[in-house]
Amino acid sequence: MQISFLKKYQPIFFKEFIIEKLYIDLLKTLIKMNNLNILVIGDHGSGKSSLLSAIINEYYKNVNKDSIKDNILSINNLKEQGIQYYRNELKTFCQTKSLILNKKKIIILDDIDIINEQSQQVFRNCIDKYSHNVHFISSCLNTQKVIDSIQSRSIIIKLKPFDKQTLYKISKKIVIKEQIDIDNESIDFIINISNNSLRQIINYLEKLKILNKKITIKESRTLCSNISFCEFEKYTYLWFEKKNVKDAVKTIFEIYDKGYSVMDILDCYFSYIKISNKIDECFKYKIIKIICKFITIFHNVHENPVELVLLTNELSKIK
Question: pLDDT at position 200, please?
């Protein structure tokens, strides 16, 4: 069975991570001290979940894998379990002792900023009562949604967004290892549309690998976005260069008729304008301002395809 690229290239140990050496040294010290109450902060795709996995792998490095399973409780916040879950399951897990000599148990709470304050208070109470027996490792995107009493009880590690040079280096490494026939312009394009998300870049590279052919910028623009950037190029050319509102409207409705919502179109067009090298920065600012205005209308008032006509008309008046 083939392993997905995300699984294949996920760092397993600290040495495979591209983060500040200071943090790696800190984590190694915390493992030696047997004190891993940690809060990892970072944007989407910054490597938070991968780092949590690496911390576990390092901590239980020489331990039999079968023994580790009963020592870890991973809480998934994609669905809110409710306060009773935190009161009962956490308490039961924390009260039972670790079966691994000289090792504590571990609770992982990914995206702690998603759960409500009451549930966070239960989590904080567990930290106070059971830190002698359990490590509490959590991650979040927005620290303002994490109660202060949890932050004050945790060692905070803030992951910086990957810079383009690092993303390019990782991309090239995967391209070479997987023997993907792709030009540098296409790699740059993929990095630019990924919003600094390494996860997104790896997903795009896997898609291109499956295609099994030489990848040029044309294939990249077609395949590596929810809506083909080639269609947005045509749309922009019609209203921006030709001032042909009628044909531009026809083009954007062709996209809509493929099943995309108005919000899908606006979000993707926003991404396209950001990275387009065919539009001067001054015009980009004006275009993005109008797109954002229509996004706000759809969020606060309504979503109606007729607004795509109004959007195109307003864009065509930019000077």
Answer: 87
Fold of 5-158: Rossmann fold (3.40.50)
Q: Do the beta carbons of residue 262 and residue 308 sit within 8 Å?
A: yes
Q: What is the mean pLDDT of the chain?
A: 88
Phi-psi region of 212 (alpha: psi -120 to 50; beta: other; left: phi over 0): left
Name the stretches of the chain with pLDDT < 70: 1, 76-86
Token pair, residue 68, equals 């580790």
CB atoms within 10 A of CB 274: 14
Q: Cα–Cα distance between 22 and 163 in angstroms, integer?
A: 18
- CATH 1.20.272.10 given to domain 229-316: yes
Contacts 24+ apart (CB under 8 A), 244-252: 245/312, 245/313, 245/316, 248/312, 248/316, 249/308, 249/309, 249/312, 252/308, 252/311, 252/312
Using an 8 Å Cβ cutoff, are 128 and 168 in contact? no
Gyration radius of the chain's alpha carbons: 24
Asked if residues 134 and 95 have their Cβ atoms less than 8 Å apart, the reply is no
Q: What is residue 162's predicted lDDT score, i.e. its pLDDT?
A: 86
The per-residue pLDDT for range 205-255, each reduced to its tens digit, is 998 998 888 999 888 888 887 788 889 999 999 999 999 999 999 999 999
Nearest CA-CA partner of 56 in 31, 39, 75, 79: 31
Pairing of strands 105-109, 72-75: parallel
Q: What pairs with residue 139 in β-bridges?
A: 40
The full set of domain ranges for the chain reads: 5-158, 164-223, 229-316
C-alpha–C-alpha distance, residues 222 and 204, integer Å? 11
What is the pTM (predicted TM-score) of this model?
0.73
